[in-house]
Amino acid sequence: MKAEIRIIQVERLPGIRMRLNVEAMEGLRRIEEIARENKELEVRSNYEGDGELHCNVVSLADRNEPEHKGLFAMFVHWKKDGRDLQLQVAASWWNPYPPKYSTYVSAAKRLFLPVIREYNNRYKTRHRMRIETPEQLEPKMTPAVEKAFKHFVHTANKEALHPLDWEAFYHFVHTCHRSRKYFYEDDIRWFCRRAGFNEHKAKSLQLAFSHCYDFLDWYQRGHR
Predict the structure, then answer these.
(1) SS3 assignment, position 152
(2) Domain boundary residue among 104, 134, 164?
(3) What residues contact residue 223 under an 8 Å CB cut-off, 6+ apart?
(4) What is the pLDDT of residues 126-169, one digit of tens each?
(5) Helix and strand tally (H, E) in the chain?
(6) How far apart are CA 109 and CA 103, in angstroms?
(7) In the listed set 134, 165, 189, which residue is the last one of a domain according to the structure?
């Protein structure tokens, strides 16, 4: 009996930000005050972070959360962000799992927007959530890297790579390394799946890219 292997596609989740009209710590305290007025929310805060190694944060969770187990949202501030807050959402279990882009954004809006609307109403501001689009989350290639990748995929036998196909792939990796353009494994898989490789081949190529790039790093360090 064959073991069934189930591939779970993981979507990229967006970064979300909000720019304050006041200093960040004052804004966080205003947010906490507003959130605590809603008895349906469980609110926690920490203002002891130095803003460099440890952040300052106000977190909130719906006591009657209907969809995701352990869902909570955080207004997070790091000193490097100035008056910008990072708005993050997390859960111990998402429904469905893993969360899709739309699931994450929906949960974020459901938790953050009531607090932001009340903030805007109370302080006569127009604060809004700035959410990365799916297009902004796509990994980007430089022109030279893209040219090398297109040469590889346009000539490759996608069912069974020929030695010349691997040579074109190595040229792509070398171009990435020369340009200091590193891609994470899920980036390579995304590129390859979009180019027409099946999931098994895309996984093999993502592993090959990582090993080849690391080898070039090692070789370069030893031959300076």
Answers:
(1) helix
(2) 134
(3) none
(4) 999 999 998 888 888 999 999 999 999 999 999 899 999 999 99
(5) 7, 6
(6) 10
(7) 134
Residues 151, 200 within the same domain: yes
pTM above 0.70, yes or no: no
Whether residues 118 and 155 fall in one domain? no
Task: Spell out where 47-189 has E strands.
Answer: 56-62, 72-77, 84-90, 130-131
114 and 153 in a single domain? The answer is no
What burial class does residue 48 get, using C-beta atoms within 10 Å of its C-beta: 0-12 exposed, 13-18 middle, 19+ buried?
Answer: exposed
What is the pLDDT at residue 187? 87
Buried b (16+ CB within 10 A) or exposed e, 126-147: ebebebeeeeeeeeebeeebee
Q: Are residues 199 and 117 in the same domain?
A: no
Q: Where in 63-190 does DSSP place strands (E)?
A: 72-77, 84-90, 130-131
| Domain that residue 116 falls in | 16-134
Residues in the chain, total: 224
